[in-house]
Amino acid sequence: MSNTSNTTGSTDNMAKGLEDVVITTTKLSKVDGIAGHLYYRGYSIDVLAQHASFEEVAHLLWFGHLPNKAELQATRERLARERYLTPGLVDSLRNIPSTASPMAVLRSAVSLLGHYDPEAEDTNHEAVMDKACRLTAQIASVIAAFERLRRGQELVEPREDLNHAANFLYMLTGEEPDPAASRALEMYLILLADHEFNASTFAARVTASTMSDLYSAVTAAIGALKGPLHGAANQKAMEQFMEIGSVENVRSWFEKAKAERRRIMGVGHRVYKVLDPRARHLREVALQLNEVAEDHRWLDIALKLEELVESDPYFNERQLHPNVDYYSAPLLYTLGIPVDLFTTIFAMSRIVGWTAHVMEQWADNRLIRPRAQYVGPIDLPWVPLEQRG
Ligand code: CMC
């Protein structure tokens, strides 16, 4: 990255998009983009996906170690207790137009949640931990509540006996959640919980670095996640599979997309130069769900399109492979989640990483304030208003 104090020098060594720029250390997650591995606090996601619950992963990221039985019970209970939304927030959700983008609603709701939290401005570690739990629980409740309200349904009270994933499906549908569906969602939540300095986490850390509050940091993160180059790629990937429509159409759609230089959504990554390890797991979960699902169409389309991407020279040369959002799409769809809600489910998982990163930032804070190379004119003469063309 350019390190010059003179902002009118060469731009040759500038890292546009901060590509490959390391700005700090982290103990939260390690992304190995060459070998295709992801670790949370030293544990491979391969191990966590096989053995862990979402609550264990949250504890691991927040506290730095896997919980013992008593700690896990405490984290579960803490998350379950925080699921209830304050009536003031529910009233606000009722007043939001049902046509609003769910990610925009979530962004506003998180900001509003801060007004009801007496600890909102407290940056003491214990208070921040409380808020991390509260936000993790309440983001799930907000998503379920908004979805039900926009469908004209009444809210479903949370159940403290269910885990985070199962309770979310229960609040969304009002029905006893299917164990396979709950575990599939839980796997999704585990796999997306943290990912080093992705754009939304960076946004959270930049905000936190000014010593602003946690709600502001998470609101900023949600705003960053909302973009289609980041979290909304899961929704866009699903829309793309729907546009393709059938397995028979995949090849012609792919050729046309290439000719039009369209981006394949859910493909490509700034760090992974091989298949995203999360995509491998999510593909497996989607395949398992499909064994009992009636409609295999979307996963079949995704599998066929992956085959074409993987055998195409353009994608090979650029090391473009399916990323986490690619197989998230058929997976979340099979779980009955509305397509425009997909990115909020990403946020429902990543809230753990965002809050853990804010805590890490505050443990050794330094204002994040990079430079930009000014490339416009300087010392222009002042032209009085009446003389301007
Ligand atoms: N389809 C077709 N071509 C692509 C794609 C794609 N999805 N992604 C990158 N390229 C091409 C790009 O046109 C460029 O080609 P050339 O060298 O000829 O100009 C080359 O690959 C490098 O692309 P880039 O834009 O410089 O790469 P980047 O690191 O800035 O972008 C990315 C990474 C994820 C934004 C990009 O791959 C992309 O837009 N993918 C589609 C959106 C997506 O799936 N986003 C989710 C990202 S991962 C999970 C998450 O954050 O949520």
Would you write up a description of this structure?
By secondary structure, this protein is mainly alpha-helical. Mean pLDDT is 96; it is low at 1-7. Helix 2 (54-63) packs across helix 3, helix 9 crosses helix 17 and helix 11 crosses helix 16. The protein has a domain at 53-178 and 193-226 and 348-363: Citrate Synthase, domain 1. A three-stranded antiparallel β-sheet has the order 1-2-3. Helix content is 55%, strand content 3%. The chain is globular, with a radius of gyration of 22 Å. It binds carboxymethyl coenzyme *A (CMC). The site of carboxymethyl coenzyme *A has 19 residues, from helix 16.
Describe the secondary-structure layout:
Elements: E1 29-32, E2 37-40, E3 43-44, H1 45-51, H2 54-63, H3 69-81, H4 87-95, H5 102-115, H6 125-150, H7 164-173, H8 179-191, H9 199-209, H10 214-225, H11 233-244, H12 250-259, H13 277-292, H14 297-310, H15 313-317, H16 324-334, H17 342-363
Antiparallel strand pairs: 1-2, 2-3
Bound molecules: carboxymethyl coenzyme *A.
> What order do the SSEs take from the amino end to the carboxyl end, as H and E?
EEEHHHHHHHHHHHHHHHHH
Counting DSSP E segments of at least 2 residues, the number of strands comes to: 3
Associated small molecules:
carboxymethyl coenzyme *A
Q: What is the typical, i.e. mean, pLDDT?
A: 96
Annotated CATH architecture of the domain at 53-178 and 193-226 and 348-363: Orthogonal Bundle
Task: State the helical fraction.
Answer: 55-70%
Strand order, sheet with most strands: 1-2-3
For CATH, the homologous superfamily of the domain at 53-178 and 193-226 and 348-363 is named as Citrate Synthase, domain 1
Report strand %. Answer: under 5%
Number of helices: 17
Biggest β-sheet strands, sense, barrel: 3 strands, antiparallel
Cα-atom Rg, whole angstroms? 22 Å
**CATH topology title of the domain at 53-178 and 193-226 and 348-363:** Citrate Synthase, domain 1
Structural class: mainly alpha
The shape is: globular
Q: What are the low-pLDDT stretches, counting only 5+ consecutive residues below 50?
A: 1-7
CATH class of the domain at 53-178 and 193-226 and 348-363: Mainly Alpha
